[in-house]
Design goal:
Elements lengths: L1 E4 L8 E5 L2 E2 L1 E6 L5 E7 L2 E2 L1 E7 L4 E8 L2 E10 L4 E8 L2 E10 L4 E8 L2 E9 L5 E7 L2 E9 L5 E7 L2 E5 L2 H10 L21
Antiparallel strand pairs: 1-2, 2-3, 4-5, 5-6, 5-7, 7-8, 8-9, 9-10, 10-11, 11-12, 12-13, 13-14, 14-15, 15-16, 16-17
Length: 199
Amino acid sequence: MGLVCYKQYGWHKEVPLQNGKPHGRGHYQDAQGYIWKGTFVRGALCGYGLLMHPEKQISFEGQFQRGQMSGFGVWKDGLRRQQYRGHWKNNSFHGYGKHENMAEQTVYEGHWRHHQRQGWGKMRYGDGSWYEGEWTKNKRHGKGIFVDDKETKYVCAWQTTACTAKANAATRTALCSAAVGTRASEKGPDSCSTPRAVR
């Protein structure tokens, strides 16, 4: 067992060595000002840890695999007023998670793939409107419900954000049943079947 300054990442403090590679727990600060608290396994950041930059107000607390954010973790960006709590893969949002953008007053909770909204999810907007349904590459795409700021509901198929066609009766009934807590939902599925392009 020895000690070494891990030059690859510019660590300022010493790291335990095992078979010539950093291995073990430590608390370090790199040349860019990022602080790492956690564990090295055979030269790579691994397991549960904390990565942060005080000046940039950025932090990630959660799981690392082979030096990358992978698994469950919480990322916060104080300057941009954003945070994400959920699953990661190779430094990207991947799996199920919740992203809050306080600056734009939006909240998305649902599925992600390679840092993009992909699959089923719900987005709430700053004006009180919301969309719940399918997403493709960060855009509303597929079956979904949109409720505007006046609580008018639209249920249809979506393509690249625009509502383009009516859902069939069975789908319309299922989707309207899923949208609770709005005046429109109390009127039955037929009241929310009119498709309309929205933002």
